[in-house]
Amino acid sequence: MKRAIAFFLAGGLMVSTAGAAPPDRRLSGSDRRYLSGVYKDTWRCLAHFVSPATGLPYDSSRRLPSTSTTNIGLYMAAVAVAAETRLIRREEAIERLERALAALEKIETFLGGFPVTWVHVDTLLPTENQFSTVDHLSNLCGGLLTVKGLFPELAARIDKRLLPMEWGRLYDENKGWYRGGWRRDVQDFDVQQKGWEWYYSFLGADTRFGYFLGTARRLVPVEAWMVLNAGRETRNGQSYFVPGWQGGGLFMQTISGLFLDERDTVLGRSAADFAWAQIVHARKIKAPVWGWSASESADGSEYLGWDRILDAVVTPHAAGLASVYYPARAAANLRALEKMGGRSPWRGDGGRRDFGFRDSVNWRTKEAAPHYLCLDQALLFLSLANLLHDGVVWRAVASDGLVQRGLKEIPFYAERDGAHLKMYAERDRGGGRD
Question: What is the pTM of this model?
Answer without folding.
Answer: 0.94
